Amino acid sequence: MSFTSFLWEIGNISNKSSRKRHRLRRGQAHINPEASFSSSPGSPGSSTVQIEQRKWANLPPELLLDIIQRVEQREQCWPGRRDVVACASVCRSWREITKDIVKTPELCGFLTFPISLKQPGPRDTPIQCFIRRERATSTFRLYMGLSPALSGELSKLLLAAKRVRRATGTDFVISLVGDDFSRSSNKYVGKLRSNFLGTKFNIFDSQPSTDSTVCSSCELCRKTHPGKVAPRVTTSNYNTAKISYELNILRTRGPRRMQCIMNSIPVSAIEEGGTAPTPTAFTNCLDEHSSPLLDSAGRRPQVGSTSRSMQNVPLVLKNKAPRWHEQLQCWCLNFKGRVTVASVKNFQLVAAVEPSENVTITEQENVILQFGKIGKDIFTMDYCYPLSAFQAFAICLSSFDTKPIAVQNAFCFT
């Protein structure tokens, strides 16, 4: 039997099991296959537990490991990568082995599970995405792929955002799906909020940061009000980054100037041997069983160290300086063919470090995020370590908000 036929056989077994569970007589308790591991052989209903486990949950660990490894190595991009997610959805044993095999985007360069969108990107080659703007509904959708023309219907939707205008500013609510932007939904991942002028932004994450003060305050709230948590607490937002656009009062020629202070990423992350915090699951500090944030090496980040590299000094990103092209009469940046339309929204971000920091010249010139226009409502977004897809998407959304005329003073051409 071929490997593909084997996977189809597993799917048929799963479907037969689902139909049989529906035929159980009324009043009989349904036992989840995952709960079967905690049931004793002599307990009531143990025979039903054995029936519910089925063959796919009783595979030998060595065979199961080989199956999932072959699936993970064969599928390098979406939609084929969906098979890896399907393996993790079979039962608990499959899920644990799949989570051990699939590495973070920093190490493998792939986006697999939803939590990958909040993990740092790869160090060597950037992850290439594109953003589609829908003016009628004020929504922005982030897709995995080079462009709509090349990806077509095979493009994988990663994140979606909806612009909500308010009297004091603008909010971009970011969700995992394109039709649910409620903050009370489990699809909500964060938001971007601007000031009245649209020159300063704050990125809010639905998860707490690694700062101990944030988690300690949540811990105190849980102990003070056990069993009674206000709705606004369960949907808290944690300020993880600040974006500011410089006002050009003299209106001199030049592209937009922006600065991003990444409060959730220490500057030590780009130093030699540095690591960025990497969440392992969607958690909330109000959840007693939530797993801690880990760095890319799987270690818990240190807090309270006296050394400068461990004081969580935030990473600062700035525009990469363009050059003026005399023949084209415009500012130019090398986007390596990923941007084809001149626009004031185009930008490249690099790390802004002090001379005293242990950061090489190569790391200082490395483009961490680039964003540019390729069509009327199509934009490319390429990001890499230490930014995550969520953080990069939020930074790019700030470019869509209305800016004063003093900021919109030049075009940046590729």
From TrEMBL:
F-box domain sequence ranges: 56-100
Organism encoding this protein: Gossypium tomentosum
Compositional bias per record (Basic residues), positions renumbered to this chain: 19-28
Single GO biological process annotation from the record: regulation of DNA-templated transcription
Pfam families: F-box-like, Tub
Chain positions covered by the region annotation Disordered: 19-51
Listed PANTHER family: TUBBY-LIKE F-BOX PROTEIN 6, TUBBY-RELATED
All copies of domain Tubby C-terminal, residue ranges: 117-402
InterPro entries: F-box-like_dom_sf, F-box_dom, Tubby-like_C, Tubby_C, Tubby_C_CS
Highest classification ranks of the organism: Eukaryota, Viridiplantae, Streptophyta, Embryophyta, Tracheophyta
Low complexity bias (residue ranges): 36-47
Family that this chain belongs to: Belongs to the TUB family.
Protein name (database record): F-box domain-containing protein
